């Protein structure tokens, strides 16, 4: 699963966690989020997000 960061405010969307409070179930892929969705923190458009590579150390 990937993570996406709002380039305006830094909010992170985590595909694994989803955003249940926004009606987006855990496991929802970025591609499956509606194009008119906006950042819950600052209202930026979906196009204002960029994929981020975060270290997920295992074991």
Q: Which whole number gives the mean pLDDT?
A: 91
Shape: globular
In order across it, which strands form the biggest sheet?
2-1-3
Helical residue percent band: under 10%
Q: The CATH topology, please?
A: Rubrerythrin, domain 2
Distance between the termini: 18 Å
Structural class, please? mainly beta
Named at the architecture level, the CATH assignment is Single Sheet
CATH class: Mainly Beta
Instruction: Give the number of domains.
Output: 1
Nearest-angstrom radius of gyration? 11 Å
* Unreliable residue stretches: none
Q: What about the largest sheet?
A: 3 strands, antiparallel
How do the helices and strands follow one another from N- to C-terminus? EEE
The count of β-strands is: 3
Give the amount of beta strand, in percent. 15-25%
Number of helices: 0
Task: Explain the layout of strands and helices.
Layout: E1 3-6, E2 12-14, E3 49-52
Antiparallel strand pairs: 1-2, 1-3
Brief overview:
This protein has 59 residues and is an all-beta fold.
